[in-house]
Amino acid sequence: MDMKNTPGQHLAVGAFALALVFGMNFFLEVPWSTALGRTSFVLLFLVLIIGPITRFSKPTESGSPFLLPWSWRGELGIWFTLTGLAHFIVILLDTPLNSLIKIGGSGFSLANLLGLVALFWGVILMITSFNKVIKFLGIMSWRWLHSLTYVIFYLISAHYMYFQYFSTYGKVGPDWFGYVATTMTLLVIILQFTAFIFSVKKYRLEQGAKMD
């Protein structure tokens, strides 16, 4: 597990996040709010693929932390929340909350509500991503809480899928990021399933070795 957040890794992840935001805005002409939201999704995707991938090889604590994939989850998760929060704030500057989410409203309101719920839980996970807080909560409680990361991912996936596939907001049909994000979502599901099968198979082999 990743209990440390180092300044060097925060600087690297922050620079990467800002490069994505500015790159989408200046080179692809994506609005600031959208660029921030898409960057947030990419960072969360990176957080979620690290876990399944490291199940296929036994983690080691030797070497530089910059070379250990699992040591980046804390920084990636914190910057995911920061960019997601910035995405929400930029939208609020132009559109009041009661226009984004209306009781009895359309799918537009529901999609925004899902995004807001995901952001709320993201802030909770960010607050609990620091060493002192982890020690206060206890490892088991911390692990249970951070297992909600997958719930956040699927809430955000539903959020972007509405705008990309079921809305006429902007233009009809998904743009390039819609296809990229869908591929990323499917990849997370495949990795989760594959890691689960791998873990079950490994457990059965260990049980068989004990019986022998």
UniProtKB/TrEMBL annotation:
Q: Which UniProt keywords apply?
A: Membrane, Transmembrane, Transmembrane helix
Membrane disposition? Multi-pass membrane protein
Q: Where does it reside? A: Membrane
- What Pfam families is this protein classified in? Ferric_reduct
Where would I find the Ferric oxidoreductase domain in this sequence?
Answer: 36-155
Report the superkingdom from the record.
Bacteria
Transferase in keyword set:
no
Q: What is its main location?
A: membrane
Q: Which GO cellular component term is one of those annotated? A: membrane
Mind telling me which residue stretches traverse the membrane in this protein? 12-30, 36-56, 76-93, 113-130, 142-164, 176-200
Answer whether the UniProt record assigns the keyword Flavoprotein to this protein. no
Q: What is this protein called?
A: Ferric oxidoreductase domain-containing protein
Q: Which organism is it from?
A: Candidatus Buchananbacteria bacterium CG10_big_fil_rev_8_21_14_0_10_33_19
